[in-house]
Every structure is written in C-alpha cells, then in structure tokens.
Amino acid sequence: MTKEERQHLLQQVREVYAVLEKRPIERQCTGRAECCRFRLTGRTPFLTRGEALLAMQAARAAGRKKLPPPADGSCPLLGTDGRCTIYQSRPFACRTHFCEAAGGPWARKEVRDLIHQLEAIDQRFGGSGGMGLPAAMKWAASES
Ligand code: SF4
Q1: Is 99 exposed, middle or buried (0-12, 13-18, 19+ CB in 10 A)?
Q2: What 8-state DSSP symbol labels residue 105?
Q3: List of residues 6+ apart from 33 with CB closer than 8 A
Q4: Model confidence at 65, in pLDDT bands (50, 70, 90)?
Q5: Mean pLDDT, residues 1-13 taken together
C-alpha cells in the first residue's frame, strides 16, 4: 500500500467519526475517563486497524513516543492528568460504548452502517476484525 492510499484510508476513518458526531442521538461524554480504566470496568474497547493507526498518529502528534501499558490496567493513551491524550481521534468504541454517565451505549442498529465502513477499511489494511485496544496499539506501533 502506498503512503497516499494509507492516508486516504485514514481520512475515511476520520469521516466515519465525523458522521457519528452528527447523528442526532443524545450523548454527552464529559471526559470523566472512567471507561478508560479497563481493569476497573472489566471492559476494553476494540479497534479496527484504521482506527489504531489513526490513534497512533494522534499519539505521536501529541508527543507520545512510546505507549507502555500502565501498571494500573488503564488505557495507554490516558494522560497523567487523567484525560485522553488523543480525544479528537479517540476510537469509535470510545465514542459509543458503555458509559452510562454519557447516556449509555449506542444501539448497534444506530451505528451498524459505520461499523461496516470501519470493517471494510480494516480489511484494506489486512485486518480481520477489531482487536483489544492494547493489542491494537501494539500492532499500530509496529506499523508506524
Ligand atoms: S483512547 Fe482515549 S477515550 Fe479511549 S480508552 Fe483510551 S484514553 Fe480513554
């Protein structure tokens, strides 16, 4: 895959996020970051390859050279200030999953079309479905 093709696919991921943000469904993430503490919640967001590459690109732009897994089982993209370091580029699952404080999870039917688009992009990157965030970021680090 050429650099241009890769950038084009990453732009498609950004567009999926932009469409999601415009969906008329009441959700209000207040950045409490409780859902970023995987050991605490017992749940880990899954990312497709395009999302992982975009998150890695954003992490590098934010000055994160390495993403060691935190000892407390939190997301490696969580900053020392307790906030997401890549919030504008956070993965789809971080925007739609289980946070009750933000209004609860999106129903699959509300986002099925966007999930299919992310899966199609994933396949273009040679993926075969989502990976847990730590594994996805490890893969993205090896690719960039
Ligand atoms: S990517 Fe950001 S929003 Fe998603 S779990 Fe990690 S720190 Fe939280």
Answers
A1: buried
A2: P
A3: 78, 82, 83, 84
A4: confident
A5: 95
Helices (H), the chain: 3-22, 38-41, 49-61, 92-96, 108-124, 133-143
Distance from the CA of 78 to the center of ligand 1, in angstroms?
Answer: 6
2 to each of 5, 8, 29, 50, 129, how far by Cα in Å?
A: 5, 10, 36, 15, 22
C-alpha 44 to ligand 1 mean position (Å): 10
* Residue 67 Cβ < 6 Å to ligand 1: no
Q: Where are the domains of the chain?
A: 3-143
Residues 123-142: tens digit of each pLDDT: 999 999 999 999 999 999 99
For residue 15 the two structure tokens come to 């567009």
pLDDT tens sequence across 79-110: 989 899 999 999 999 988 766 666 666 677 88
How many Å apart are CA 143 and CA 137, to the nearest integer?
10
Q: What would the DSSP string read from start to end of 61-87?
A: HTT----PPPTTSB-TTB-TTSSBTTG
Q: Coil, strand, or helix at residue 131? A: strand
